[in-house]
Every structure is written in C-alpha cells, then in structure tokens.
Amino acid sequence: MKLKSIFLGVTLACGSVLGFADNNIKMVVGTYTDAGGQGLYSFSFDQSTGKATGISSLNVNNPSYLTFSKDGRHIYAVSEKNYATAVLNCIGFDPIKGTFAFKNSQLTNGGDPCYVDTNGKIALTANYSGGTISVFPILKNGTLDKSLLQIGSKKGGPNRTRQNTPHAHCVIFAPDGNILTTDFSGDRILCFSYNKRDKKLEDHGIAAHVKAGSGPRHLVFSPNGKYAYLMSELSGKVTVFSYKDGKLKELQTIAADYAHAHGGADIHVSPDGEFVYASTRLKGDGITIFRVNDNGTLTRVGAQRTGKHPRNFAITSNGKYLLVACRDDNEIQVYSRDKSTGLLQNTNQDIILSHPVCVKFYPEK
C-alpha cells in the first residue's frame, strides 16, 4: 500500500509523534517545486517496520539538497535557482514535533546551488551553473551570515555539451577538516581549508585528477576516514581513493552505470562500512551494490532496479533500510537491506511526493 502525502498537522506532531518508540527517527525530504509542491517535508520513520508517517511541510523554493546542523536544530537547504535568486536557507527544526521554522536566507551569488555541507562554523554550497563554492559563516544563533563567494572550478573537459562551462557539484568536509570539492568540468577534486581570520578558503591544490570526461559528481568517505568513494556522472564509474592530508590516491575505478547513460548520481557507504551503493539514472535506473574489500577496493555484488531518476538516496543509521528519491515517479521507495549480503528488497511502502530529490535523516546522537 502506498503512503499518501497527507500531513496531519499540530495534533499528530504534538501527540502520537511524542509517543513513538526509540526506533522512530525523523526524516526530512527536499523536493523540486515546479509542479506545485511545498518544498520541504518531514516524516517520522519507523526503523523496525520501514513505515513513514507524514508530519509537516514548509514552503521553500526548489530545496534540491539539504543538510542538518550537528545538533539537528537547524537545516541548511539550497534553493536551486538562477544566479539572481539562488539562496541558502536556514530553517529551524524541532526534533520532537518534527516541525519547521524559517530563520533566514542568504544569496549564494552563484547559480543553481546543488549541494550543501557544514561543520557547525561555516556552511558551504557547490553552485553548479556558477562553477563556484560559496562560504557562509554561521552566527551564534545558527543563522547564516552573507556569503563569501569562492571560485573553484574550471571548464575544459572533453564533453563539449556538459563540460563547456565551469561546474561544481559537491563540496564536503573531509574527516581531518579539509574541504574537498568536485570540479565537474575540470575532472578534478580540489582541496581547501577555511581561514577564519581572513574569511576565505585557502587553496591547497588538486587532491586528485580523474580520467578526462568523467564528470566527478558526489564524494563520500568510509566510516574510518581512510577511503573516499567518488561517483562520476558522465563516466558512470565509481573511483576508490585512499585519503591522507588533503590528497587522494586512486586505488580502483569500477563501473556502476552499465547502461552507459551518463547518469551517475549519488553514492553512500553503509553505516558498518561493509558496502557501497551508487545510483544511476536515464537508462536502467537503479542502485548498484558493491562489497568493500579489506583494502578499501570494491567488488560488485548486485544491482537493484528502482523507479525513474533515483537522484538521491539515504540509508538509516541502523543499516536496515535504504530510501530512494525517484524524482520522475514522484515517490520515495523504501527498501529493506540485508546486512550480510548488501542486497535490497522493495517493501512497497512508497512515500508519494512531487519530485523528491533529497532524503536526510535527523542526526542521531
């Protein structure tokens, strides 16, 4: 049975949500709003049954990517818009009620922000069309100060259609505090650190090159911080790196997109570090499943077909469920996950939403 997107308001939020057992966690979903959706939606997700219950929503324009603050009390969500209207939004979040409270927004000064990360002191956005990284100091009350625009990417890849202008697709904090960003058009991963005194990013050069025409998209670290896994959009391949002091050393490149659709999307590591999952789109849409070997390299163990355009997905902290935002099917699919084999099984408890593109779970302590 499909779960309809019905939000039951204050009574549910203040009543039965408060009575949920510990296996219920909060979940926030970002959506594209071109078809009339609200933007942000909150749910309670039962980690024992895989069932989601709608709580609340908030009008935010095109929140295509979001992240929680470390304490979970604030959400930082991009509005993926053109240069003049693109912003990063700060939204208060009540972890008990699951409700939102808009705080403030600041211009990114870079078009189409599509990724955001924070270390609690600053927030960073990767601005796809702008080909830039924006830095936002975070004020004591959790709100955002004005952005400090940083140029980080270049054009020049061999794909004349996709790499003819600079694009930045992902920016994350490495386990050691360094900042890494994927230079989509330059086929590089760049490294920076933040100089708080001068309020700017300091350039530490190129962390790694990838094969020309790859279009590096999303980067994630293993739980132990020793390895990093890159999903490249154009090549549809996953690259495995070892990591130390802002430098990435390539260990392996392995295909995820066997349809060769140039649609590599998202990548995540299971909480126990034993498996890597990568989503691919445009043809043969689904999740490719890899087992992590002792040296950090990957072995493909399976694939799971999903709904259309699995742009983003998330794994619950207990590792039991994997949720896939299928943008073009207007649903989030809920898969149970076998912790020993890594394989997925559809629970058929779909969450119906208009153009879901980002799923995030409240950070558990």
Describe the secondary-structure layout.
Layout: H1 9-14, E1 24-31, E2 39-46, E3 52-59, E4 66-68, E5 74-79, E6 87-93, E7 100-107, E8 113-118, E9 122-127, E10 132-137, E11 148-151, E12 168-173, E13 179-183, E14 188-195, E15 200-209, E16 216-221, E17 227-232, E18 237-244, E19 247-255, E20 264-269, E21 275-280, E22 286-292, E23 298-305, E24 310-315, E25 321-326, E26 331-337, E27 344-346, E28 351-352, E29 356-361
Antiparallel strand pairs: 1-2, 1-29, 2-3, 4-5, 5-6, 6-7, 8-9, 9-10, 10-11, 12-13, 13-14, 14-15, 16-17, 17-18, 18-19, 20-21, 21-22, 22-23, 24-25, 25-26, 26-27, 26-28
Quick recap of the structure?
The chain is mainly beta and 365 residues long.
Q: Can you put this structure into words, describing what you see?
A:
This protein is mostly beta strands and about 375 residues long. It is built from one helix and 29 strands. It has one helix at about 10-15, and strands at about 25-30, 40-45, 50-60, 65-70, 75-80, 85-95, 100-105, 115-120, 120-125, 130-135, 150, 170-175, 180-185, 190-195, 200-210, 215-220, 225-230, 235-245, 245-255, 265-270, 275-280, 285-290, 300-305, 310-315, 320-325, 330-335, 345, 350, 355-360. Strands 24, 25, 26, 27 and 28 form a five-stranded antiparallel β-sheet that branches. The chain has a four-stranded antiparallel β-sheet with strand order 3-2-1-29. It is globular, with a radius of gyration of 19 Å. The two termini are about 30 Å apart.
Helix and strand element order: HEEEEEEEEEEEEEEEEEEEEEEEEEEEEE
Instruction: Output mean pLDDT.
Output: 93
Q: Helix- and strand-based class?
A: mainly beta
User: Which outline best applies?
Assistant: globular
Number of helices, counting only DSSP H or I runs of 4 residues or more: 1
Sheet with the most strands?
Answer: 5 strands, antiparallel
